[in-house]
Design brief:
371 residues; alpha/beta; ten-stranded mixed β-sheet; two-stranded parallel ribbon; 12 helices; elongated; binds S-adenosyl-L-homocysteine; binds iron/sulfur cluster
């Protein structure tokens, strides 16, 4: 029987309670593991003796291992290849923000250096979006909440993580219980990330979005809309049939009413598919009455897996101008970074390192908007 991750919060709590051990020790144990990821249980000081035997028989400090680390020459992006207990690989990407890069005109960044971590929630994905390499590999398995949190533990060895975005492999809202638990752990002691700095990206799983305000009030939501009308959405995202655009927009309106915060809209720019002037107007009309930030994403070609082409810079600019000028919608264009290490949100193909991801793009913008 494989051992559970100590960061599987519900399991460790239940086991401690069953054994009559105070759950207060859990934060202390987590802190020790974060500082000593390779520790053995007997090295954690001052626990009740029953805790040591329980930990040894049922839990591991970390169930995943940091297989390799790739630094981009851009000096900003680092990709972590993480091997799960079942042998599958997932990837997490750290993006550091540093005033030396001149982003703030050479001035020190307000709040000091910080980093954003892009996290995976599943191995593969069953949503099958036609432009996404992860989608082409199908669904392999869900990550446990502990495996999700462990990506943060690995990343903390490299950088001071302030922001987390669920934009790695998988559809986070299809792994709902683990996602909710992982976010609770990340925002509680000892991690204490601010919920304002956590963003979940989804294709729009309507029933799950409806539950979110109860389970994690005020979570930042990014919705991969990618098309302004139902038929184009269905062509490029088969899951759109199960989650019709009109219903999705109604659900987002409700979400916005409850959470009173802007929603991020992701829109991948595909040449000749969804990047015409009329699409910009349709999108503008659709979003006009929402508080949103639209993030236009240059498409990263995924080799022979699809026939899509990236929109030209001119078309992206034209699209952005219409949304901004005619509809007064805040619209950013996602920067592409770290191409040399080919780490990409949503683009991991198979679980062998040498065959892995094909392109790269990462948000500088969504996390910037959290300031
Ligand atoms: N499943 C979630 C989160 C992971 S994908 C979702 O779809 O939102 C994270 C982002 O990467 C999504 O907006 C997704 O549409 C985008 N993406 C997927 N494939 C891409 C590609 N080839 N080029 C650019 N962005 C891509
Ligand atoms: Fe899954 Fe997101 Fe890729 Fe679609 S874009 S297949 S939902 S990971």
């Amino acid at each position: 029987m494989s051992l559970r991750s100590i960061f599987d919060a519900a399991e460790i709590r239940a086991e401690f309670q069953k054994a009559g051990i105070s759950t207060h020790f859990i934060t202390f144990i987590w802190k020790h593991v974060i500082q000593n990821p390779n520790c053995e249980w007997h090295e954690v000081p001052s626990l009740p003796s029953a805790a040591y035997s329980l930990l040894r028989t049922k839990f591991k400090p970390l169930t995943s291992t940091l297989d390799s680390v790739f630094d981009s020459t851009d000096e900003v992006t680092t990709k972590l290849l993480i091997k799960l207990q079942n042998g599958a690989f997932v990837e997490a990407v750290v993006m550091r923000y540093d005033s030396r890069l001149g982003k703030y005109g050479g001035d020190p960044r307000p709040g000091g250096p910080r980093a954003t971590l892009c996290i995976s929630s599943q191995v593969g994905c069953k949503m099958g979006c036609k432009f996404c390499a992860t989608g082409s590999m199908g669904f392999k398995n869900n990550l446990s909440s502990g495996e999700i949190v462990e990506q943060l533990v690995h990343a903390l060895r490299l950088s001071h993580i302030r922001n987390v975005v669920f934009m790695g492999m998988g559809e986070p809202l299809n792994n709902y219980a683990a996602l909710v638990e992982a976010i609770h752990v990340m925002t509680g002691p000892p991690f204490r990330l601010s919920l304002k700095k956590i963003t979940v990206s989804t294709v729009g799983i309507i029933h799950a979005i409806k539950k979110l305000p109860t389970d994690i009030p005020n979570l930042n939501l990014a919705v991969s809309l990618h098309a302004p009308v139902q038929d184009i959405r269905c062509q490029i995202m088969p899951a759109a049939r199960a989650f019709p655009l009109e219903k999705l927009m109604d659900t987002l309106r409700e979400y916005q009413k409850k959470c009173q915060q802007k929603i991020f809209i992701e829109y991948i720019m595909l040449d000749g598919v969804n990047d015409e002037e009329q699409h910009a107007h349709q999108l503008g009309n659709l979003l006009e009455t929402f508080q949103v930030v639209v993030n236009l994403i240059p498409f990263n070609p995924i080799g022979t897996l699809s026939n899509f082409r990236s929109s030209s810079e001119q078309r992206v600019t034209r699209f952005q101008k219409i949304l901004r000028g005619t509809y007064n919608i805040r619209t950013t264009v996602r920067k592409q970074m770290g191409q040399d290490i080919s780490g990409a949100c949503g683009q991991l193909v198979v679980n062998l390192p040498e065959k892995r991801s094909i392109g790269h793009d990462h948000l500088t913008d969504i996390e910037d908007l959290h300031l």
